[in-house]
Amino acid sequence: MTSDPKAMVQKLWDFCDVLRDDGLSYGDYLEQLTYLLFLKMADEQEELLGERVVPIGLDWQTLLNRSGEQLEAQYNKTLTELGSYDDMLGVVFRKARNRIQNPAKLEQLIKEFIDQHEWMSYDSDLKGDAYEGLIEKTAQEGARGAGQYFTPRALISTIVDVMLPESDDRICDPACGTGGFFLGAYESIVGRYPHLTPDQAAHLRSGAFTGWEIADLPARLCAMNLLLHGIESPESDSPINVDDALRDDPGVRFDMVLTNPPFGRSSSDSYEREDFWATTKNKQLNFVQHVVSLLKIGGTAAVVVPDNVLFEAGAGETIRRRLLHDCDVHTLLRLPTGIFYAQGVKANVLFFRRREGAEQAWTKELWVYDLRTNKHFTLKQNPLTRADLDEFVACYNPANRHQRQESERFKRYTYDEL
After folding, report:
1. Is residue 141 part of a domain?
2. What is the CATH number of the domain that holds 15?
3. How far is CA 325 from CA 104, 297, 353, 415, 418, in A?
4. Are 330 and 385 in contact, with CB atoms under 8 Å apart?
5. pLDDT digit string (tens) for 310-358?
6. Which domain holds residue 348?
7. Dihedral, CA of residue 47, residue 49, residue 55 and residue 60, to nearest 10
8. Which of 80, 94, 127, 274 has the most CB atoms within 10 Å of its CB?
9. pLDDT (tens digit, 9 = 90+) per residue, 36-64?
10. Which domain CATH number covers 155?
11. What is the DSSP string of 382-415?
């Protein structure tokens, strides 16, 4: 197997084309790969460390020892039983089903492809990048792919570059999708702090990240993505909670929240929570309130929100007033259209810090960077790149955001003007 993640992705992808003849979608293929890669890596981990992760009878070797319909039956049994566990195994296999209808092709994928490679011997960046590349490719294949859970990587790295997560931070994403913000934060910390203490390294590998994801597919992709990047281990308690994050206050507080909650105006019901400032069916307004509740005093957040959050009356106005009062809402990035897989979305990134209670509003001024006016991006012909956001990062001035200069796209508004 090549040590080039692009070539690895291409090879994995080529096999998808073989399976598409049987009606398997990109998303289904990626999901099946997730199960099989997990079982293979658990098998390798046992060889390396002598620690059994998957019980005998449900493990990789049991699949290798079977052929044809017996293999198919064993694979179905493995998926069903592992889905009942309450660790990382349970998240990866929750409600898992075999969607490869042709036993011969299942056998080919297991024995001629995945078993031929020692996945654990690849550098975690390499195998993580390969898997991330597959998620990205799947997202690009339209609405039925992973697109709805996928935040453009250029936007994630920009947000992380101005937020500057620290090695001992606890970081939360209450709508974590496939885990893009976690990986962005992880890579930023490792890149800026090459000499972590053993305690810091251990925290980063287990304990730094906590996520919620309501849908099974992105939750399993996220768990797998973390594992492939060397975060958590197959038998550890999962940091990904498969649940509706808005349902209640989880009772834990975080240093940083990075999130792009799902777009879509309303929930079927409103959330009656004592810690919310207003009761509304607007999902994004509820996520804004929820993010504030997740932060420690002094904690920071970057949240992607649609335009309606900034302009909606009623509950929207109540929530904005409280947000400006209780938090220092210091920066707003207005995003161009054409960068998300959901079409026509007008979105922004809100940056704020939670503060302790006070009579005066904590927000004194809001700096707005306009990346929307006269900017045109499309997903395929002219995708957003990290370079398109360099000027925003420079204007934001993460080293000292109290020393900022106005420019053509970067304007300052006082609390009274807001």
Report:
1. no
2. 1.20.1260.30
3. 62, 14, 11, 10, 12
4. no
5. 999 999 999 999 999 999 999 999 999 989 877 778 999 999 999 998 8
6. 147-414
7. -30
8. 127
9. 988 998 898 888 878 788 999 999 999 99
10. 3.40.50.150
11. S---GGGGHHHHHHH-TT-TTS----SSEEEEET
